[in-house]
Amino acid sequence: MFTGIVEELGTVAAVEDQGDALRLTIACEVAISDAGLGDSIAVNGCCLTVSELGAGTWTADVMAETLAKTNLDKVAVGDRVNLERAVTADKRLGGHVVQGHVDAVGEVVARTPSEHWEVVEIAMPTELGKYLVDKGSITVDGASLTVVEAHDTTFTVSLIPETLTRTTLGFREPGSRVNLEVDVIAKHVEKLVRAYTSKES
Q1: Smallest Cα–Cα separation from 12: which of 76, 65, 73?
Q2: In 33-117, at which residue ranges do the beta strands (DSSP E only) sit?
Q3: What span, in angstroms and rounded, lies between the C-alpha atoms of 105 and 123?
Q4: Cβ atoms within 10 A of the Cβ of 155, count?
Q5: For 152-171, what is the mean pLDDT?
Q6: In angstroms, how far apart are the furthest CA atoms of the chain?
């Protein structure tokens, strides 16, 4: 489990194409400062397992299912990626409950800068729209954000300078693909309500 508070921007050091999978090596400092084999690290919001540790790098195996549902399928050497270690019991929950299970890939539609923040509009698959509400939570490339306005196929978020500086969202231009994870609590509520209403009908 994660909180959506990005700890650092890592850099893709190597990508090994294995046909139906990738071996992804990332250079970083904070995310591997206490990492061990088998630990979980979120990369652009996608939970990956540490399979190898090097000098300032770590490697993960990225399976076909993950490549099909995330923006990691187009990752290249030199790309910057958001990193977060799995949450521990003594850590502040600064964002919201994030599983690291990407629901879909969205696309940056527009960026509207202002003096102290920037509003970013993101397009999403229609099936995710029902889980978003104004002032609710959404994870974009692993960053926990507050929805400003939720629509059927798009939503907006307002990014402060800290987010723009410390995450990939500072340089995602219109047309960029971003990983989206909706609030898991909303999905649980939907399932419970559906089960309850089906018993009544």
Answers
A1: 76
A2: 40-43, 46-49, 52-53, 57-63, 80-85, 104-113
A3: 9
A4: 27
A5: 95
A6: 60
Which residue type sits at 146?
T
Integer Cα distance of 2 and 142 in angstroms: 9
- Which residues lie closer than 8 Å to 116 by C-beta, 6 or more apart? 160, 161
CA angle 67, 68, 73 (to 5 degrees): 40
Main-chain dihedrals φ then ψ at residue 168, nearest 5 degrees: -65, -20
Yes or no: say if 45 and 83 are a contact pair by the CB < 8 Å rule.
Answer: no
- Provide the residue type at 77 as one letter: V
First to last CA, the chain: 36
Look at the block and give the residue holding tokens 């599983």: 99
Query: What residues contact residue 147 under an 8 Å CB cut-off, 6+ apart?
Result: 132, 133, 134, 135, 136, 137, 138, 155, 156, 157
Q: Rounded to two decimals, what is the model's pTM? A: 0.91
Q: Rounded to an integer, what distance in angstroms lies between the CA atom of residue 57 and that of residue 11? A: 9
| Confidence band for 200, pLDDT divided at 50, 70 and 90 | low
The model's pLDDT over 41-59, given as tens digits with 9 standing for 90+, comes to 999 999 999 999 999 999 9
Cβ–Cβ under 8 Å, residues 148 and 119: yes
| Distance from C-alpha of 26 to C-alpha of 29, rounded to nearest angstrom | 10
Backbone angles phi, psi at 149, to 5 degrees: -130, 130
